[in-house]
UniProtKB/TrEMBL annotation:
Keywords attached to this entry: Hydrolase, Magnesium
GO molecular function annotations of the record: N-acylneuraminate-9-phosphatase activity
Native source species: Heterocephalus glaber
Pfam families per UniProt: Hydrolase (PF00702)
InterPro entries: HAD-like_hydrolase, HAD-like_sf, HAD-SF_hydro_IA, HAD-SF_hydro_IA_CTE7, HAD_sf
Biological process according to GO: N-acetylneuraminate biosynthetic process
Gene from which this protein is expressed: Nanp
Name listed for the protein in its UniProt record: N-acylneuraminate-9-phosphatase
Length: 247
């Protein structure tokens, strides 16, 4: 892991610093209420939301043929048609999409203990936010959770040539902060992007946030596993302590 102290930490955003999955569920529950109360849907409301969730999980972010608003409105339109039949209802799809999106953004907040942790860490190391995804979507989340002031730099995958796990985006982050890959630690909840990317780029360490407690059965294998991002400061001290001992 090299004989230098940690100089920079790269953080993933979704489900690492903010509870995106929880915020999305809140959005879906509001749409279910809307469909049941205003449009008198019954169990179809939940079926539609389940279908949209599947479509969101299969979304491929490259390359964009349409803007994210059109793409996601069409998820709702298709889900309504698949469930209810009949002709497309774009207006209802838009109503569902914007309710889901606005509710979701309202619940994307940085917890007070996370803010405190970032503030303290930044006294010791440089902090960078590294998030994959569509430019508009991720910038709206960044604004909603008001996290800009906690970071030295913010990098959105959809604004770069390649996203995590490509090494190029990690090297770009290093250049922005004036550090080497061997000075940096990547923290995130996704093995395929955050951890694999950190390994691909030769970072000092990768830290996987594993809220479920299930251990990975396949590679990539992270250097460290924690159940919460709040365990990071103690872990960084541990990494730096190992450096001191090896020197």
């Amino acid at each position: 892991m090299g004989l230098t102290r940690v100089r920079a930490v790269f953080f993933d955003l979704d489900n690492t610093l903010i509870d995106t999955a929880g915020a999305s569920r809140r959005g879906m529950s509001e749409v279910i209420k809307l469909l049941q109360s205003k449009y008198h849907y019954k169990e179809e409301a939940e079926i539609i939301c389940d279908k949209v969730q599947v479509k969101l999980s299969k979304e491929s972010f490259h390359p964009y043929n349409m803007c994210i608003t059109d793409l996601r409105t069409s998820h709702w339109e298709e889900a309504i048609r698949e469930t209810k039949g009949g002709k497309d209802n774009r207006r209802l799809a838009e109503e569902c999409y914007f309710l889901w999106k606005s509710t979701r953004l309202q619940h994307m907040t940085l917890a007070e203990d996370v803010k405190a942790m970032l503030t303290e860490l930044r006294k010791e190391v440089r902090l960078l936010l590294l998030t994959n995804g569509d430019r508009q979507t991720q910038r709206e989340k960044i604004e909603a959770c008001a996290c800009q002031s906690y970071f030295d730099a913010i990098v959105v995958g959809g604004e770069q040539k390649e996203e995590k796990p490509a090494p190029s985006i990690f090297y770009h982050c290093c250049d922005l902060l004036g550090v080497q890959p061997g000075d940096c630690v990547m923290v995130g909840d996704t093995l395929e992007t955050d951890i694999q990317g950190g390994l691909n780029a030769g970072l000092k360490a990768t830290v996987w946030i594993n809220k479920s407690g299930n251990m990975p059965l396949t590679s990539p294998i992270p250097h460290y596993i924690v159940s919460s991002v709040l365990e990071l400061p103690a872990l960084l001290q541990n990494i730096d302590c190992k450096v001191s001992l090896s020197i």
